[in-house]
């Protein structure tokens, strides 16, 4: 299925969003699109990139760009990962298996959400099936460590067995953020027939995912020692936590505010990035998500020290708009845009982008215009 | 009475405001909602919080939060007080006694306005009645010192006798601010049947509250010496005044611009807070009101050095929307939001929030976007 | 005639503007309201005050305020002058004589425009007639020095003879600014029956006012030596020019951008003020116009070092809305607001406002929000 | 043909745009008006000038202004060049020959685009025909160096033979920017009958213009050695590239972001200008385009160190609105505005504008209000 907007192929992620929001049930659309509280942070994520400015270099004769990226031992076709997002069967009947096929075709990393509505094994099978042999790309698994240590350990074993290449531990969710669209819509449970398939126990019962407010660095250290997989800590914004993550043995730090869905009022990841990069000091890779909607956004983040970025909602838009094909279209659009951005910025590889491309004062704090609307907010009402 | 918005319980203070503004008489709604002059400061109060950014800490294993707070010898269920606001019988037939019941149930401090439309004694009786034994919470009394020293002294005695635990002396009102909505509406007097009951003299006549432009530090010092109650000075914005307050023996400094109702053009309290905190230097507690509409707002203020915050208009919204139950609902929403914010910011107690959670440049002066509108301004017109 | 807005007295200058714009012919309204070019500077003038923040002092026991102000040997009822504006008969049949009566009643300075549509002598007679004996207030005369030195000298003599107490020499107009509303409206000449009466020669012919691009410091020095009146230079923004003005013997410096009507793109006077005040160093008074619409605006300017402010368009609004009574109402509103602002800021006299009332970073450059709209822009379209 | 807007002559470039956008085919209008990606940079270009502030000097007795400017050996009637823009026959049947006549009449430089729809020889003939003898003005030729070195060399020879006085080498286009309006409109080819006439080979076939991502400094150096014409490098934003350009022998540096049509997310040229001027250090002239819509914009750029500015879209507006007459009207408006701006800023010649006219903090980074709209965005929808 090929996504179509007013008779033509979407030319940007914003177009893909248009297609998706017309197709999604309103309550599901709100679940995907919404954030916590007043959505101050949700808007900030987009504003930070809208206000960022990159100084391009010219006449570098870069020739064809090389977007391939190595990350935690895997090769990716580009430094753009698919962030974990929940409940893909809300967007498309096939759910995460369609996502997996699209991501595999695009040759990058899909971080399978613990709240997937397909089993990890099904997702992994689809991913391998769609991937051409040893082409780039990999599955990672996102984990909320559960109070039930045995259950958590079993999940880690399943991820290892399914061929996941890294564990992404979400650390910004000791409790669930207050997402008021969902509260207003009464969207508190999955519709009949849908479930978090990776929390089903042998009796068929599906556990709820527990947000655990006792999760601490010790638990992370124990988890780190209990798996052979690299452990990525997702949800870090404070530079002190970034330093602690490295000291605790994390294999990567993922700067994120959970897409503005947890604590409303925190800064955009892009705003928090430079201090985190300083604190990490190159000891482990830094990944960033939140507001990346354009290839140039990825390049801006990398110029400021990120090793890769991730996108969440756009992949769901693609999935809703066109299933596997829509997911791939979203990633292909980002690849094409990033390729153009690299060419026009004078870097052959995204990792060649240096901080001097972001001149002093050319990065806009996300808080500069509290009342501002972003381009993507405009246009059609729904 | 349970407030309902379009058939459901309000999920935020903004929702509660929606309910209230539909119920209030237009002139009374304007009295509650309006500010002085062009309402530059009124907008600034909200913008300051909308633009603030908090850097959360992760993996601190905080467990259940403890929001209880000690303030001037009282224990509160949370560091959110009810600021004094006038004329509660405009919002609900029961007026301040309903407010008192709601606040008592919520276990925090109600600062009874000198312009209450119920007697202090009635309010105190309701408060004690609704409070479960020695549960947290207390009544404080707000005072405009009157030129008639004997009358002022008598009021202080009444407050002491009624069990009030502190005097909140308003110092930002040597004259009344120009509230142009009221001038346009001709809203200059209370409707028949309503009166400032605490200004009624033995003959039944009700005095007007005098704004006294000769009030000075000497008068405060004398008042301080004439009561056993702690004296809080409310309406301080300049750091030099904060220092003078401490030197004059004030037991707490309350940073406030009177909800934008006195001098239009003064900064948001949040903007003024850091310099005041520096000037006070921890010698007495610092309280802040003005624009607090979210739990995270309270946490931001506390990270910047406030010991507690207060809310004014939201309590009136709750009162209008649902009487005692609406007041309690407002405070319960704030408690739930603050609890979530603490969990997500990695602090067990709000007072554990440290200034490093507000990274440099992550606090937006309220003046950054003079023409900006805040989220709460949008939506339904009335 | 008492101005009325929707059945009630205007409570602010914005209200008065509402009345006026409904009464003025569209092309005349545009002449009054418009600025040069894109009106970037016109908007900046208002934004600068909208974004300014004043830190009030409390408990100073100021008692009744004293707004009287001495300026160049005259006593004014308040530090708010009436700036010179052209063509008052466009706004009201009586023109400048009505303005003069209103200003005299208000006890302040009217700067009679060289482009007045009544003779200076008529204006002076009306002013003296309406002024109660030796009450505060004075007439000053605004001059564009003309290439015809004899004519210029004759005008200065007329101003002296008419009892004008100062000459305000406009220095920002070597050529006329491009006011595109007037160009679009074809408003290039006064309607039949109206003329610049002070440029009428003995034959009855009316000269055009020449904008003279050869006017320089030498000419100012010669003018200075040729009159016993104090000479005020109006239209200074650059601090180097402020210093030159003092060295050239100017008796006061008037910071102004001609209400945004000359060079679009220059800063708001408030933004330019601090550097000018530094350059002048207290040697002569500094006056400011441009965007003053509130009493607190005057206080902000004075805290930053101005000795007085002036208002232009608001006086024309008052004149259009109610003739003499409207002019007086505008000035009375400003006086009432300034009185309130002084009381609430803790200063008995406006001149007591010190720079510390404007905390660092609490003055917003007018350029912060290029696309922002100001409050006064909103509301009714015309 | 004289452009007319609602029955009157346009008084500003914004008016001219109004006329043009009503006349252009929607897809052609989008081609002219649009930018790359989200058009963040396109908006930034305008915002940078809208937010800039110039401090005028007074009483300098400048007399009549002298706008003539020498640049690379040519004399221009003013320091405003016509930037190269493609496909003028989309705007007017005569295309670039009409443009040339208008520019010649205005006495400035027309940079003929390599993507012109008329032959360079026809354009040159029209230019010379319309120019009065040795009046100011010149043709320059814009070049995308092609991978086919012989073809590139032949083009350079044609430009020399046609009397072009400089080569403007575009260096910001190793690939074509993603212009999404064109993608959505399917505007990928010129309509039948129109072609890039300077890419026609002897057989009549028209080559495509190749964007060459291998173009580098060595190729520029070789081109520099292969022509007697001055070589201008257009599309520099990074100060390091400006320094390299001078070292590579460029005769001028042209600060540009290609009108926001190449890499979306780069800063406005005005924002990038000061660092470029520092890097160039006066060794060669600096030209700037991007967002210049007013005479004062040119003066701001020159105060910050530019030697001249260029306009692109406005010339196409003029061409669409009135052919040769419209082009001349656009340039005459800019000249009139610049003349007024110089008079009002106190400079006889634009080059006399010094950096102190732009006070510290009086230049607004273009990123300050990411969500802001600029004046030109408002008004009529189409």
Q: How would you describe this protein?
A:
The structure is a homotetramer of 382-residue chains. Chain A has 382 residues and is an alpha/beta fold. Chain A has one domain (13-351): TIM Barrel. Chain A has twelve helices and ten strands. Chain A has helices at 13-23, 26-33, 40-51, 96-106, 120-130, 149-161, 180-185, 217-225, 239-247, 269-280, 295-303, 313-345; strands at 69-71, 74-76, 80-82, 109-112, 138-143, 167-170, 231-236, 252-255, 286-289, 308-311. In chain A, the strands form two sheets. An eight-stranded parallel sheet of chain A has the order 3-10-9-8-7-6-5-4. In chain A, helix 1 (13-23) packs antiparallel against helix 12 (313-345), helix 4 runs parallel beside helix 5 and helix 9 crosses helix 10. Chains in contact: A-B, A-D, B-C, C-D. Chains A and B meet through helix 7, helix 8, strand 7, helix 9 and helix 10 of A and helix 3, helix 11 and helix 12 of B.
Mean pLDDT of chain A: 93
Structural domains of chain A: how many: 1
Shape of chain A: globular
Q: Alpha-carbon distance between the termini of chain A?
A: 24 Å
Biggest sheet of chain A, in brief?
8 strands, parallel
């Amino acid at each position: 299925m090929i996504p179509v907007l007013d008779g033509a192929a979407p030319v940007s992620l914003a177009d893909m969003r248009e297609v998706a929001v017309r197709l999604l049930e309103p309550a599901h659309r709100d679940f995907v699109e919404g954030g916590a509280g007043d959505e101050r942070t949700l808007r900030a994520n987009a504003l930070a990139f809208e206000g960022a400015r990159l100084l391009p270099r010219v006449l570098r004769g870069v020739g064809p760009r090389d977007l391939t990226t190595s990350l935690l031992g895997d090769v990716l076709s580009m430094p753009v990962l698919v962030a974990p997002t929940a409940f893909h069967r809300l967007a498309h009947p096939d759910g995460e298996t369609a996502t997996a096929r699209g991501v595999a075709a695009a040759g990058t990393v899909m971080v399978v959400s613990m709240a997937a509505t397909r089993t990890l094994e099904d997702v992994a099978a689809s991913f391998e099936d769609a991937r051409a042999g040893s082409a780039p790309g990999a599955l990672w698994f996102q984990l909320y460590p559960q109070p039930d240590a045995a259950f958590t350990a079993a999940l880690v074993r399943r991820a290892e067995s399914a061929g996941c290449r890294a564990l992404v531990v979400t650390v910004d969710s000791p409790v669930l953020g207050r997402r008021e669209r969902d509260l207003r819509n009464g969207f508190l449970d999955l519709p009949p027939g849908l479930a978090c398939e990776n929390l089903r126990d042998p009796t068929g019962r599906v556990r709820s995912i527990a947000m655990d407010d006792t999760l601490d660095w010790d638990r992370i250290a124990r988890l780190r020692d209990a798996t052979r997989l690299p452990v990525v800590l997702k949800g870090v914004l404070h530079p002190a936590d970034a330093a602690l993550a490295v000291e605790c043995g994390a294999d990567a730090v993922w700067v994120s505010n959970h897409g503005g869905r947890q604590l409303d009022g925190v800064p955009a990841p892009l705003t928090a990035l430079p201090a985190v990069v300083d604190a990490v000091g190159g000891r482990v890779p830094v990944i960033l998500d939140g507001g990346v909607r354009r290839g140039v956004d990825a390049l801006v983040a990398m110029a400021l020290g990120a090793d890769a970025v991730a996108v969440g909602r756009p992949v769901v838009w693609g999935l809703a708009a066109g299933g596997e094909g829509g997911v791939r279209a979203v990633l292909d659009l980002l690849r094409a845009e990033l390729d153009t951005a690299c060419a026009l910025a004078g870097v052959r590889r995204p990792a060649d982008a240096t901080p001097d491309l972001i001149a002093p004062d050319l990065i806009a704090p996300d808080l500069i215009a509290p009342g501002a609307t972003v381009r993507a907010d405009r246009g059609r009402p729904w």
